[in-house]
Amino acid sequence: MTPSEIGFAILYLGVFLLLGKIIRVKVKVLQNLFLPSSIIGGFIALLLGPQVLGKLMNLFVPDDHFLTSGIMTETIVNVWAELPGLMINVVFASLFLGAVIPKLEQIWKYGGPQLAFGWAIGWGQYVIGLLLVIFILTPFFDIPPIAGALIEVAFEGGHGTAAGMASTFEELGFAEAFDLAIGLATVGVLSGVIFGIILINWAVRRNHTKVIEDVEDFSDLRKRGVMEYQNREPAAQMTTRPESIEPLSFHLALVMIAILIGWLILQGLIALEAVTIANWTGSSFMEYIPLFPVAMLGGIILQVFFSKKDKYNLVDRRMINRIQGLALDILILAAIGTVSLDVIGEYLVPFLLLAITGIAWNLFGFIYLAPRIIPEYWFERGIGDFGQSMGVTATGLLLMRVVDPDNESPAFEAFGYKQLVYEPFLGGGFVTALSVPFIAQFGAVPGLILAAAMVAVGITSGLFYFGKEKHKKAA
Question: Hey, how many other C-beta atoms are within 10 angstroms of the C-beta on 412?
């Protein structure tokens, strides 16, 4: 594989990103679903690649014909397959760079109820998955116990986390879990948006929303994904002078350094384990941990340094957001475009069981737990956590923007505070990264006991601590 071939494969990303955007602008159904262009482009790439168009062409042309790969050459597919695992490090290293870390009291007051709710939902996905593994997937389909982690990895973690765990799945002897996780992540995003819109319509009719009265008030431009002219604002600030260093280059360098710090920390942990636990027990654990959650820790360390030493306020959060958004678009498009349909077909019944039970748990949690745990604006705040539990943070933010377009409720503030505590653990954090090797080493039953205990912590604190505040205000 030459540098030119790698470069051409990256150029192809632009073609499908733009194609996805054009289709989003033109197709009404996709506008109403608010589907990101990266997901649309990824599906188009999948259809025009070797797994769909290539197999169809194979019926009419010889095996050595170039059309047997569709319009995606083998080199392009191979390059794209590696991109998600790289881009997820950029996404997670950027999570806290440029963000103001508030006082603990503020986090607890506004983010506490949603942390309890999200904690219960996130750990509950492990409970559901592990129950499936213990009683159905392993006995009847001979699927390894680590499949019990796939709902949380795919739904809460999304395409990025699923891609980041690919090497872990492979090292633990179940490489097919990557394709299943990518497929589940796609189902999660789609069902998150679809069920989210359905729930919003239901809530408006039942007077559960306090901000909006009609979900049909969105402009045509907004549905097409085009920013209204009067609402346009700078995408980022110029915090450095270009003749010194281009602002984008400066911020990209910070993200790279955060990833490097994470890599050094991970290598140190692996080396420490080798001379301690691994040396004493003969088993290792840290080598299965992917880089992305530790890259997030690298970003936090770098942000703490800049918060104390940067008197010029050089780190612009909006610029970091643009870098993070680009990495996420590339990640999603490449992951969907290279997912193995053969693997999903081979494991179709387990795949459907994981998807259906995961969706059912999230819907139950939102409808039953959210109004009992979150003291005020329960729907506006809870819908964000529901969206995240189905299809990562971006889906949650999208649904919150639908029910609170002008930020009139405390939903965005509370969600942001909750993320500061939640993200380092679930949804792609350390718990997500550690869960797969933990289940592989200790088994599904210990994993189930731990997950059930964590669900109990979330539900108990939510109902009997934060829920009491709700009843006090009602009285």
Answer: 16
- Give the separation between CA 436 and CA 409, rounded to whole angstroms: 37
Closest CA to 155 of 131, 176, 186: 186
DSSP 103: -
Q: Name 64's Cβ contacts closer than 8 Å, sequence gap at least 6.
A: none
- Going from the C-alpha of 101 to that of each of 42, 213, 258, 296, the distances in angstroms are 35, 34, 17, 14
- Residue 233 DSSP one-character state: -
CA distance 429 to 122: 12
Q: Summarize pLDDT for 233-271 with one digit per residue, the tens.
A: 787 889 999 999 999 999 999 999 999 999 999 999 889
Residue with tokens 């069902």: 191
pTM: 0.75
CB atoms within 10 A of CB 436: 29
Cβ pair 336, 186 in contact under 8 A: yes
> Strand, coil or helix: what is 108?
helix
Q: How far is CA 41 from CA 56, 162, 330, 394, in A?
A: 20, 19, 10, 17
CA distance 365 to 383: 11
- Cβ count near 97 (within 10 Å): 26
12 to 41, 85, 329, 391: CA distances (angstroms): 11, 18, 13, 26
Measured between its terminal Cα atoms, the distance across the chain in Å is 69
- pLDDT per residue over 375-407, tens digit each? 888 888 888 889 888 876 767 776 777 777 666
- What single string gives the DSSP state of each residue in 450-467? HHHHHHHHHHHHIIIIIH
Do residues 460 and 373 make contact, with C-beta atoms less than 8 angstroms apart? no
Q: What is the DSSP letter of 238?
A: -
Q: What is the gyration radius of the CA atoms in the chain, in angstroms?
A: 22
Crossing angle (nearest 10°) for helices 348-364 and 112-132: 150
Burial of 473 (0-12, 13-18, 19+ CB in 10 A): exposed
Q: What is the DSSP string of 263-300?
A: HHHHHHHHHHHHHTHHHHHS---GGG--SHHHHHHHHH
Most confident region among 105-114, 117-126, 216-225, 368-377 by mean pLDDT: 117-126
How far is residue 84's CA from residue 121's CA, in Å, rounded to a whole number?
Answer: 26
